[in-house]
Design goal:
Structural class: mainly alpha
Shape: elongated
Order of helices and strands: HHHHH
Length: 125
């Protein structure tokens, strides 16, 4: 088989693909909102037994099935909203990525059993 080496054209300076960074920030924060929804739902299910029963969609995995629905629903709703809100804005990615990482750390800590159980116990009174 005879193949010919074809060099890809090198873009001229200043012709690279550019788009507003708001869409990137929107995607990051939609993921963060989804994870926070999971953390809050996790705490709420531990506080309220009726809520835990209500969100149990499949008995095999228990209330986790409903918690995932809350995660995906909040992500699915927030991403288009944030995308259309921020799509034409030029934002400082370095700053907002740092905010995103801190938010993800907080959401992850809120899902750690010793933390969410302590919060749930405090809310129960």
């Amino acid at each position: 088989m005879d193949t010919e080496h074809v060099e890809e054209p090198v873009p001229e300076e200043g012709t690279e693909l550019r788009f507003p960074t708001g869409v990137i920030v929107a995607a990051l924060f939609a993921a963060w909102i989804g994870l926070m929804a999971l953390a809050i739902t996790n705490i709420a299910a531990d506080v309220n037994g009726g809520f835990r029963t209500w969100i149990t969609l499949h008995s095999g995995i228990g209330p986790y099935s409903g918690k995932e629905v809350f995660l995906f629903a909040s992500w699915f709703v927030s991403w288009p909203f944030l995308h259309f809100t921020l799509r034409k804005r030029e934002l400082d990615l370095r700053r907002w990525f740092g905010v995103f990482l801190v938010g993800m750390l907080i959401a992850t800590i809120l899902m750690w059993p010793p933390i969410f159980e302590a919060i749930a116990d405090a809310l129960k009174g």
